[in-house]
Amino acid sequence: MATGAAADADTFPKLLIRNAEIFRTRPAMRHKDLGIWQAWTWAQVLDHVRAFSIGMAELGLKRDDKVAIIGGNRPRLYWAMCAAQALGAVPVPLYADSVAEEMAYVLEHAEIAIAVVEDQEQVDKILSIADRLSTLKYIVYDEPRGLRDYDHQRLGAFADVEAAGRRRLGADGDARARWDASVAAGRGGDLAVILYTSGTTGRPKGVMLSFDNVVISARNGNLFDRLDEHEEIIAYLPLAWVGDHIFSYAQSYVAGFCVNCPEAAETVVEDRREIGTSYAFAPPRIYENLLTLTMVRMEDAGALKRAMFHFFIEHARKWGERILNGERVPLVARAVYRLGDVLVYGPLKNRFGLSRIRVGYTAGEAIGPEIFRFYRSLGINLKQLYGQTEAAVYITAQPDGEIYADTVGKPNFDVDVRIAENGEVLFKSPGVFMGYYKDPEKTAQTKTPDGWVHSGDAGFFDPKTGHLKIIDRAKDVGRLRSGTLFAPKYIENKLKFYPNIREAVAFGDDRDFVCAILNIDITAVGSWAERNNVVYGSYQELAGHPQVYEMLAAHVAEVNRSLVAEKVMAGAQIKRFLILHKELDADDGELTRTLKVRRGFISERFAPLIKALYDGSPAADIATDVTFEDGRKGVVAARVRIHDMDIVVPAADLERAA
Amino acid sequence: MRASAGQGVAAGDIVLSVEDVSLGFGGVQALTGVSFDIRNGEIRAIIGPNGAGKTSMLNVINGFYHPQSGRITFKGKTRSKMRPYEAARGGIARTFQNVALFKGMTALDNIMAGRTLKMHRGVLWQILRVGPALAEEVEHRLKVEEIIDFLEIAHIRKIPVGRLPYGLQKRVELGRALAMEPNLLLLDEPMAGMNLEEKEDMSRFIIDVNNHFGTTIALIEHDMGVVMDLSDRVVVLDYGRKIADGTPDDVKRDQKVIDAYLGVGH
């Protein structure tokens, strides 16, 4: 049987058996515990998974039952996923930081039979909602601390369940053959996992992925970046997130590389440094935090170190990326870069735990181009990809040597991408999900009968590079009266990448041209004012200062120039803008609590300003209610000036005119 | 759940008792004829208004102060005063009202310092770090790592404690006390100066220590809510005298206690 599994291992339990054979003594997983890295080889992992799996069968787990997995990145929770799959049961990872109420919905909806959780905290949460979970038979916990005095009738330690499995294996000669048969019965088309998406609106949806979806996507991903059993990665992202499921579980099983579990959420940076990961995946904020931390530390360093740091970082900014991309670079610049590598870049990468990185991805949202280039200039192969739970992650990714700060790359192997009439990105791939669990209606809305999935994002292919660019959520994208695509967030993000601009709101849907309302960043502009002897008495005064207007107009002009370079966007240049006299504030309802702009509310509240933007008047009066920090309310009245911009004419149009 | 566990042992086993203890500094009488006992496995709170003599009481128990009169019975042996090394060797560990750690040393080294009494090899052996001395260090390090894991301070293991926020310093100090594997743990205002979240964390750790290691705990605390939730029995001091002793509920209803806290004239 084992050799058969090696030939076409189309499920994770089969892959595990294969790995235990061909990578017998290679490490499959490490976990830092009590300050020391503990390691398990593939053969040892198989041993644990088999025993635990049989232990769960003893608890009455059957084919098609659902098993909730709740907790941090711990080896046993990953093993539990494979152990469930070996029995034909389906793991359902949940976000460990959700409150009990949020968990209740998913646990109920997925009809969970067994929950495998990390510790007392999670056990308490489930017990608090247990009366609503009619299907829940048993809770298994990894960390026994604090649980000794609990009622253990329907509760047990991972180690005990595994021991029960081992007893059965020892006592019953057929147990092992039965388990092997159960693994062999698994098919690639079977449901492998249900991942609930957090969903910005409404209830979370359970995305059903088959083994084929996950295994083939992972295999293609490995091929794309030539990942093999020698990679080292660190698992630190939520188990419930499709990214972690692919990177820390699927790709590891397919390629046979080692997954390292950190000691605690707070020690990830240190643990990453010790391991020296070769393949990494993180949302932009992780990279932002690392950079901020470094910059702050650098400010405290001695003058010599600081000067050296800034000199070489400046040099890297100029040449680093070109060296990484294999372009022609003068010999002197190359030599200085080499020196910088010894003195600054090397130690810095070591601090980040990125000395041995071969491939690093950022995904999830747009990364600031400055930050992106910073890492690349140090020689770190940071790339962007675009993925979704419904696609088992991979839709597009940037191939080595074709890296741009503002694209998400080319379609992955076996992925077809096309852009719909309304600008929405559609994709079709082996990773396309089976459907939403118990929700055929939503499935039909998202997935066409011939297998195309509506991503919900609007984008276009950049003609110059052939890469996909994502501009906004499709439902937020509108059109100017001329018919040009108007993607507010795309424009706003471009504006917000300037440190002087704190917030930006673009208007243009069903209008003749695009206008923007800007907020200055008081820290950045304030420090600029100090350096340039610009005197101001209040936020309002600084925001209205003519020199500030000049400075921001220059930024807007740059944004316009970058828009014109993209054919689809050229018509959506900002024609007029104003700087708002007050900061947009969640207390005033202008931002959400997560600091996203509430477009509709803002256009009502500042209606006179928007009217003035479009009727051509040079300034407008506005009086708004404000809530002060202490809760008092007041009215701020102001006369806000409007600045006109020159529209850049696209090069193509020029040619045509001539 | 815990209360019953506490009472189960309470039947006979008294770990420590003080009888008729009086302590004065010159003209100031810090403690006057105080008697109470601490039972095995319980969480015992000592409360009282400022200057009631709570810290003095702890200092008498672990031998920092020597009372002028009275008896202290610890593990069946009665004496007129405790000596610090006797207390430490006997398994009494403590934390202080204002954190008393080695600021320049890492959290790990500070907790390791708590193992000093358990080290058997001499200085020379330890300097050489070979054979039995190395084996011993490994064994102690394992114990310390268990404590670090228990208190969830792995991320600050190698940071000098002087750079840590106050709440974490308190936790390291608790770790050092735990490293002694005490039978009786004295905590002097473990939550002083903490915010609500830190207090909740610390409360959980105190309960866990009591539960997991079976350590008997005597603590001084100002926050009445915390005291009433945590402890099995409470003794109340006021102006150096014991004015009440009993379960949190009894003490809460006691008129003398209410008066002492509301400041009725004496």
Describe the structure.
The complex is a heterodimer of chains A (658) and B (266). In chain A, helix 2 (12-22) packs antiparallel against helix 3 and helix 3 crosses helix 7. The N and C termini of chain A lie far apart (74 Å). By secondary structure, chain A is of the alpha/beta class. Chain A contains 23 helices and 28 strands. In chain A, 41% of the residues lie in helices and 23% in strands. Chain A folds into three domains: 2-206 and 221-268, Rossmann fold (3-Layer(aba) Sandwich), CATH 3.40.50.12780; 278-380, no CATH class; 477-657, 2-Layer Sandwich (GMP Synthetase, Chain A, domain 3), CATH 3.30.300. Chain B is an alpha/beta fold and 266 residues long. Chain B has two domains: 1-91 and 197-266, P-loop containing nucleotide triphosphate hydrolases (Rossmann fold); 99-181, 3-Layer(aba) Sandwich (Rossmann fold). Chain B has helices at 2-10, 54-61, 84-89, 107-113, 123-128, 131-150, 166-179, 196-212, 224-230, 248-253, 255-262; strands at residues 14-25, 28-39, 43-47, 69-74, 77-79, 92-95, 184-188, 216-220, 233-238, 241-246. In chain B, helix 4 packs parallel to helix 7 and helix 6 (131-150) packs across helix 7 (166-179). The longest helix of chain B is centred in the middle third of the chain and has 20 residues, at 131-150.
